Amino acid sequence: MSQAILQVRDISLSFKGVKAINALSFEVARGEICALIGPNGAGKSSLLNVLNGVYRFDAGEIVFEDQHFQRIDPLGAARRGIGRTFQNNALFKKMSVLDNILTGLSRHMRSRFIEQALGLPRARREAEAFRLRAQGILEFLELQAQRDVLVGNLSYGLQKRVELGRALIAGPSLLLLDEPMAGMNAEEKQEMARFVADVNRDLGTTVVLIEHDMGVVMGLSDHVVVLDYGRKVGDGTPAEVQANPDVIAAYLGVANE
Ligand SMILES: Nc1ncnc2c1ncn2[C@@H]1O[C@H](COP(=O)(O)OP(=O)(O)OP(=O)(O)O)[C@@H](O)[C@H]1O
């Protein structure tokens, strides 16, 4: 088993001639928290969409768990252990917290719809196992008290936590988080950072996250990759990246203006 859980090799992606990602290569070590940073339009979300199979890349390859891919599809990515949350959360507001978390398993069900509808034994056993897993996630994320609350009635910070739970229930080995702290107040950010660190440490999940708050990035990540116009302009520890003149010019300088 290689040290790197993920290798991005020379990946390019264009939209009608606009290069969103340009010959990008970097590695994510197993067990680390890797932050992707860069100005708006740098290609960060596009990269997450490439990694979980939503966008088809034009060139290069992805190596995940030592397997080489020239193409990834969303179902295949989910089944191989790549989980994902989105920038604008896509929860079901009129469903309970528990049911929202259970929707994270829809791609992993073995029993067929007809077996579920008829309540056949395999479907019943599967449903029970999934409920137990959901219960474990609720406890881990300290959401037991909100188990039956409709998601639309929760605070924004708690909704983001439910979204994390929905991604976690499938037991991903690699979790992609698209701005998990966006729009949060300082307290909510701190709380979410704690949960991301707990997921990484206690569940052993490798995390790749996009984040704009430099304080959060520097405190939480083991590794930072900096993008600008679809290219990599920095790659190293938070301290190395902070001291890199190209990064300061491309991003940190701009952010500090
Ligand atoms: N579906 C799409 N169709 C056309 N162009 C797109 C699409 N998605 C992204 N782009 C373009 O690709 C480039 C990279 O965008 P992307 O959203 O990946 O950047 P980002 O770093 O995530 O930015 P932000 O921080 O604003 O979310 C931009 O020029 C964007 O306009």
From TrEMBL:
<dbReference type="InterPro" id="IPR003593">
    <property type="entry name" value="AAA+_ATPase"/>
</dbReference>
<keyword id="KW-0813">Transport</keyword>
<protein>
    <submittedName>
        <fullName>ABC transporter ATP-binding protein</fullName>
    </submittedName>
</protein>
<dbReference type="GO" id="GO:0005886">
    <property type="term" value="C:plasma membrane"/>
</dbReference>
<dbReference type="Pfam" id="PF00005">
    <property type="entry name" value="ABC_tran"/>
</dbReference>
<keyword id="KW-0547">Nucleotide-binding</keyword>
<dbReference type="InterPro" id="IPR003439">
    <property type="entry name" value="ABC_transporter-like_ATP-bd"/>
</dbReference>
<dbReference type="GO" id="GO:0005524">
    <property type="term" value="F:ATP binding"/>
</dbReference>
<dbReference type="InterPro" id="IPR032823">
    <property type="entry name" value="BCA_ABC_TP_C"/>
</dbReference>
<keyword id="KW-0067">ATP-binding</keyword>
<dbReference type="InterPro" id="IPR051120">
    <property type="entry name" value="ABC_AA/LPS_Transport"/>
</dbReference>
<dbReference type="InterPro" id="IPR027417">
    <property type="entry name" value="P-loop_NTPase"/>
</dbReference>
<dbReference type="Pfam" id="PF12399">
    <property type="entry name" value="BCA_ABC_TP_C"/>
</dbReference>
<dbReference type="GO" id="GO:0016887">
    <property type="term" value="F:ATP hydrolysis activity"/>
</dbReference>
